[in-house]
Specification:
About 35% of the residues lie in helices and about 20% in strands.
Length: about 325
């Protein structure tokens, strides 16, 4: 399906735009989300050991860029961005690897499930990753919005950016965000897509796959946590496109939970399994990791270091 057809069919529009206050067949979307984000199956998981760097591990630096405004792709939006540079990046001979994390505040936090900067510090110090630049990008807050996922305008903007299956978001990264990040890091990142990763959870997960799908020359590695490959803005069509489109040079890790979301838009575990089956059919290098929990980063955080090792092998 080409992008013009996708838009002509209205697949870029969603019930999300109306705030999802209605119930469907006696089910409430927000009740379904609450159940899956507090599932007891996540209890056994903890951040991976690499999230706790050993004494003496050189630590990278993280610069927070608050209130940054998009000028072209998402005009009128403001967002926070964090730029990580691993220890020794300035002296590295080769251009650093690049990682982009959607919902960046969740991934950069030093007390959350992921703790990405600490994990990268451990892996780079151990020689299991090259020197790395990482960019943590928050979804946009529209002008006048209160912010937070309880605000309808902010909730809708995140869906527009992440769930829409076109090339606008990857263009946004390439033309607006990454030049800023490279300026703050003090050097350009590698242009080799096999050393450029994009990652996210839920709608940020499908966004990551979609970015690599439309621009495999920019991102060759995808890490999706509980990806929303469902009927929010046409994402449920991706398995068919994977099966019928010439294989692209991308490597993918999909993570989901046995009790991931089950809503009016579809079942997240089944959607991830269907995409994994399509990737197998089309001959992609990929992994599917199914945990025992719900729609959270608990399992993804527990296997983060192993996921990165496999992708960058």
């Amino acid at each position: 399906m080409d992008l013009d057809t996708y838009r002509a069919l209205g697949l870029d529009r969603s019930l999300v735009d109306d705030g999802l206050t209605s119930s469907f067949n006696g089910r409430s979307f927000f009740d379904d989300v609450t159940r899956s984000t507090s599932d007891p199956g996540d209890a056994p998981y903890a951040p991976c050991p690499e999230a706790f760097p050993a004494a003496g591990t050189p630590r990278g630096r993280v610069e927070h860029v608050p209130g940054w405004q998009s000028s072209a792709c998402y005009p009128g939006t403001t967002r926070d961005i964090w730029v990580y540079a691993s220890a020794g990046l300035d002296a590295a001979t080769d251009a650093p690897a690049l990682m982009v994390f959607n919902d960046g505040g969740t991934y950069v936090a030093d007390d959350g499930a992921m703790r990405v900067p600490a994990v990268l510090d451990s892996l780079v110090h151990a020689g299991e990753l090259p020197p790395t630049m990482a960019v943590f990008v928050q979804a946009g807050r529209p002008e006048g919005a209160d912010g937070g996922m309880g605000d309808l305008a902010t909730f809708r903007q995140r869906s527009v950016e992440y769930d829409t299956c076109d090339d606008r978001y990857v263009t946004f990264l390439a033309t607006e965000v990454l030049p800023l990040a490279e300026e703050r890091a003090g050097r350009p990142a590698t242009t080799d897509p096999a050393r450029r990763l994009i990652c996210g959870i839920s709608s940020g997960g499908i966004c990551s796959f979609n970015a690599a799908w439309h621009a495999p020359d920019r991102f060759g590695l995808v890490l999706s946590h509980c990806g929303s490959f469902t009927a929010i803005r046409g994402g449920h069509h991706l398995p068919y496109l994977v099966r019928t489109t010439e294989r692209k040079p991308i490597r993918v890790v999909l993570q989901t939970g046995a009790h991931d979301l089950d809503t009016v838009f579809g079942n997240w575990e089944l959607a991830n399994r269907e995409l994994a089956a399509a990737l197998s059919y089309a001959g992609y290098e990929h992994r599917l990791e199914v945990g025992s929990g719900g729609h959270t980063l608990a399992h993804g955080g527990a296997i983060l270091a192993d996921s990165l090792r496999w992708l960058f092998r």
